[in-house]
Structures are given as structure tokens and as C-alpha cells.
Amino acid sequence: MKKTIKRTFRVSKYVIYKETLVDYKEHFWSFLGAFFGIGIIAFIQSHSLTETENIFLIGSFGASSVLIYGAIQSPLAQPRNLIGGHVLSAIVGVTVYKIVPDIIWLSAPLAVAFSIVLMQYTKTLHPPGGATALIAVSSTGKIPDLGYWYVISPVLSGCIILLLVALFFNNITPNRSYPSHSRFIRLLRKKHAHGHVHPNKIKK
């Protein structure tokens, strides 16, 4: 019994230590990734799309940034989940809005619930996707008028920008790897390692 208590205490102590450990380098790259990812989307909206009144920066992108820049090893943060979760949820949201456009107490829960199930079924679960579906049915102004164009822009186009920035900043140091378990990333690093031959191995 005492051994079990001591082991539980050691495990708890380790978990608390890991959770409270401050990794300044990791936080630095997370900050830069989120700054440039959201910054690029905001810049495009403020400088390029004002004439068309298009909405390019939606709230769910902020939640996605937490995952793809701050929790890059999470299964929910992988590219498949980022793109698939947002796009499928956007389709669900627009479809529900077209069917029940004026009944918010019904359209809002239907959009979120169906988007969750569809993401689960397609293995693209991405929590911010629920917000993307909700935005489609609850927003006023330009977004409802976009119809299924909402799926392409701002959702898909914004996700691509966030992903490209994530691929850069999340692989800029040897300690960061994104996507996790990616053959592409491992291949790049393998070639990079082969390109640096140790001086002692160079034949004279």
C-alpha cells in the first residue's frame, strides 16, 4: 500500500513538474507562428478584401492557432484535422443555415452537433471546427450571404495560410516536428543529416 502511495506521489509530482515547466524557446516559436499565421490573414483582410466586404478572419482561427502552434504534437492539431475539421464543419454550418435560416435555437445546436459527428466519422476532429459551423449559422452581415463560398473563403483559404506558417515555424528547430509522425519531415531531416558528413569520414 505504501509503495503504491509513493509511486502515485512520484508520478503526480512528475506530471505537475512537466505541466509547470517553462520552455522559453518553445514559447518563442509558438508566439512567432501564431503572430505570423493570424497576422497574414488579418493583413489580407484589412488591405485586400475591404472593397468586397469579405470576412477573411474568423474567430475559430484563433482557437486553431492555439493547437497548431502551441500543441503541435496533439492529434487534434495535425493538418488533416485542421483542414478537414474546418472545411467539413463549414459545409455543415452553411447547409443547416440554408435549411433552417431563421430558427437560431435549432440551427445553432444542429450545426455544432452534426459537425462534431462528421469530424468523428472522418477522423478529422478539430475543436475549433465547431465554432466554424456556429459562425455560419449565427453571424450577421456578409457571412450568411456567402453561402457555400464561405467554405472556400475564408475557411479553406485561411486554413491553408495557417498550415503553411505552421509547417515553417514548427520545423525550424530540431526540437520541433510537425506534422507528428510525418514521413515527409523525417525524409527531409534524413537528407539534411546526410548532407553534413563528419570531417573524420572524409577520405583524403
UniProtKB/TrEMBL annotation:
Top-level taxonomic group: Bacteria
Membrane spanning residue stretches: 28-49, 55-72, 148-169
Key word Transmembrane helix present: yes
Matches recorded under InterPro entries: HPP, TM_HPP
Keywords: Membrane, Transmembrane, Transmembrane helix
Residue intervals of the HPP transmembrane region domain: 22-179
Name of the protein in its database record: HPP family protein
Organism per entry: Chryseobacterium ureilyticum
